[in-house]
Design brief:
Layout lengths: L1 E5 L3 H14 L4 E6 L2 H11 L3 E5 L7 H11 L5 E6 L4 H9 L4 E4 L4 H13 L23 H13 L6 H8 L3 H12 L3 H19 L7 H4 L5 H12 L3 H8 L1
Parallel strand pairs: 1-2, 1-3, 3-4, 4-5
Helix pairs in contact: 1-5, 2-3, 7-8, 9-11
Length: 248
């Protein structure tokens, strides 16, 4: 079982990791993250079977992170929340999101063993999102195989830093050749396509209130909120507030 731990306290993260590894040899820790934003990016790329996540974290809290993943769609990941706060409202939100369990710190071996047993016995995984997201490359069936592979990477990693140069190197071709193939087969250049794709994802997050509005730019791969707001208006013709009103 591929597991990811999201915890901003190093001691707690290390303790949980040791507990999980002591329970079963089938447990594989594929990644660790100390903030919700980084965790969101890793989940989209790695798609672990289970994520153990804290709630109170920098940049994006655990609840918002889970909502963002669910809004993304097409990710088969189950969540276990770990928190120092035994609050009814947090537990209620966790239940509404379909999390496997809500655990209160400090964790004990018995706590983790019970969750592990439940994860193994429950063969039905929680599907994040109301429906599977359409495969991006299916929209361009006649594209070059390398471009189809690039579309797979974009769909998985759009929320991360994804330059044309890095993508071309990943595919084993020059940036110039990649640019030629992409523009020829997709009908627009890479930068414009990626920007438009990210804005489409932002529109979903805005319409569903999946994450706080101020976190949306970072959730779709923008590092500069002002640039994101400008791009959003250029792509949609309206600002975020106006767009939100049209969807209510």
């Amino acid at each position: 079982m591929r597991i990811m731990i999201v915890e901003d306290e190093k001691r707690s993260s290390r303790g949980l990791k040791n507990l999980l590894l002591s329970i079963s040899e089938e447990c594989e820790i594929v990644a660790e993250a100390s903030d919700g934003q980084k965790a969101f990016e890793l989940i989209l790329c790695l798609q672990p079977d289970v994520v153990f996540t804290d709630i109170k974290m920098p940049f994006m809290d655990g609840i918002s992170m889970i909502k963002a993943v669910q809004a993304r769609g097409g990710v088969r990941t189950r969540f276990v929340i770990i928190s120092a706060y035994e609050e009814f409202e947090l537990a209620r939100q966790a239940i509404s999101l379909g999390v496997v369990e809500y655990l209160v710190k400090p964790l004990t071996l018995e706590d983790v063993e019970k969750v592990w047993k439940r994860l193994q016995e429950d063969g039905t995984q929680v599907f994040c999102g109301e429906k599977e997201q359409a495969d991006l490359k299916s929209q361009y069936p006649d594209a070059h195989p390398l471009i189809l592979k690039a579309l797979d990477i974009i769909q998985c990693s759009y929320a991360t830093k994804l330059s044309q140069k890095d993508l071309a190197e990943n595919l084993g071709i020059s940036a110039e050749y990649f640019s030629f193939l992409f523009s020829r087969d997709i009908g627009e250049n890479y930068a414009k396509f990626l920007r438009r794709y990210r804005i489409e994802k932002a529109k979903v997050l805005l319409s569903t209130d999946a994450v706080p509005r101020e976190q949306i730019p970072y959730s779709v791969g923008f590092s500069d909120p002002k640039y994101f707001y400008r791009c959003f208006k250029e792509e949609t013709g309206v600002n975020m507030t106006e767009y939100k009103k049209t969807k209510c």
